[in-house]
Amino acid sequence: MSMSCSDVVTICGLFAVQCIYGLYMMFLSALLAAGVPSLFITVVACAASSIVVLPFALALERVSIYQSHRDARCGTHLAGDRLRHA
């Protein structure tokens, strides 16, 4: 039984996510045991994830704006236009 490269990458990714989640739970339980308020942890975690995700969101938004402008210039943004030109 031979596994393809994509199967190995998928399995390694799933394993890495489980390891990261386990480390996060250990860190979180230590913080809660130290007496840090859970609301503070929630606010800091949401702010940190927002900072991490923001560059990707901006990049995807720029790509989608570029594609919508390009489609509008070419006249392919409406399904009716595609059918009329075909």
From TrEMBL:
Keywords: Membrane, Transmembrane, Transmembrane helix
Domain of life per record: Eukaryota
Transmembrane segments: 12-33, 39-60
Descriptive protein name: WAT1-related protein
Annotated source species: Miscanthus lutarioriparius
